[in-house]
Write a structure and sequence with these properties.
Blueprint lengths: L1 H4 L4 E6 L5 H14 L6 E4 L8 H14 L3 E7 L5 H13 L4 E5 L16 H12 L4 E6 L10 H13 L4 E6 L3 H13 L6 E5 L5 H11 L5 H9 L4 H21 L4 E5 L5 H9 L6
Parallel strand pairs: 1-2, 1-8, 2-3, 3-4, 4-5, 5-6, 6-7, 7-8
This protein binds flavin-adenine dinucleotide.
Flavin-adenine dinucleotide binds next to strand 3, strand 4, helix 5, helix 6 and strand 6.
Length: about 280
């Protein structure tokens, strides 16, 4: 994966927009603590269908105004219209936002139509057509492949469409098998895909929650990890300690193998991400 080693290393963190004021305070406290990593950006997810629109705006505005770190809102295709997306892009431009993460999203239950954009490549194309080079656009990548893709070749070519539509970088779905990432990057290189593909890292802190997320998004928890975690039962300290060991090792292998950074799915908590960061010896402040 020679192509990835030439990019400067980028570290970033992801939050979700909380539903309560208390949740928002926790997010801001996490953001404050994570500043020690000097991340390139903090991203905030967007509920497909616009369900979190105002809360995503609120979190993005607070990050952009108070942290001195770039805020990167996620945008999705679900239930979107060209006019509505244009409005959101105008709003973000007025807020001084320069980075977005463009996604398809998943249809919430009961919703049958995607909206005016069917796939993420169409959203990327629209953002470029409307705003030129204003935004640095990140897209999603799937080293273990997207669960709805009929086959690997199809998924890789669809990933390429997003790159050709104007994406600047990609963030992967989380995974625990570094070989899946290295092989994916090699496959991309063979297709002439040329952009940094940053691994998405999910710290392990809660066995049940991780299993639920993984079922939903198609990320595999290898059997040897799952069995160990199950063996700890309700011992949360043991789960956290083992998770820290496994995920730190994963990050180290990825960075040693040339990955151009790490994107942490923080779940709005600073502790697990910072623990990995410090174990990696990446402390910068
Ligand atoms: P796409 O790239 O559009 O791909 C979706 C599927 O369609 C794939 O199987 C692909 O092979 C296929 N496909 C793509 N293009 C075409 C085409 N032109 N023709 C035919 N088939 C095609 N979800 C949210 O709701 N909100 C978020 O904030 C959010 N943030 C995320 C951040 C990251 C880093 C990641 C990895 C995922 C995130 N998700 C989020 C989840 C994401 O929306 C889902 O995984 C969704 O199922 C796919 O989104 P995508 O942008 O990868 O879709």
């Amino acid at each position: 994966m020679d192509s990835q080693t030439r990019y400067p290393k980028i570290f970033s963190c992801e939050f979700f927009p909380p539903t309560t004021d208390e949740g928002m305070r926790k997010l801001f406290a996490a953001r404050e603590a994570l500043m020690r990593m000097r991340p390139a950006f903090f991203s905030v997810t967007y509920g497909a269908g616009g369900s979190t629109r105002d809360r995503t705006f609120q979190a993005i505005q607070a990050i952009q105004t108070h942290s001195g770190v770039d805020a990167a809102p996620h945008l999705t295709c679900v239930a979107s219209t060209r006019a509505g997306t244009r409005e959101i892009l105008d709003y973000y431009r007025a807020q001084g936002i320069h980075r977005v993460v463009a996604l398809r999203g998943d249809l919430p239950s009961g919703m049958r139509e995607f909206g005016e954009f069917r796939y993420a490549n169409e959203l990327v194309e629209f953002i470029r057509a409307e705003t030129g080079d204003h935004f640095h656009i990140e897209v999603a990548a799937y080293p273990e492949f997207h669960p709805q893709a009929p086959n690997i070749e199809h998924d890789l070519l669809n990933f390429k469409r997003k790159v050709e539509a104007g994406a600047n970088g990609a963030i992967t779905q989380y995974f625990y098998n570094p070989d899946a990432y290295f092989r994916f990057v090699d496959d991309c290189e063979k297709l002439g895909i040329d952009l940094p593909i940053v691994p998405g890292i999910m710290p392990i802190t809660n066995c049940t929650q991780l299993a639920r997320f993984s079922d939903n998004c198609g990320a595999e928890i290898p059997r040897w990890i799952r069995k160990r975690l199950e063996g700890f039962g309700d011992d949360r300290d043991a789960i956290r300690a083992y998770g820290l060991e496994v995920v730190t090792d994963l990050c180290r292998r990825l960075l040693d193998g040339g990955a151009p950074g790490l994107h942490f799915y923080t779940m709005n908590q600073a502790g697990p991400t910072l623990a990995i960061w410090e174990r990696l010896g990446l402390t910068v402040a």
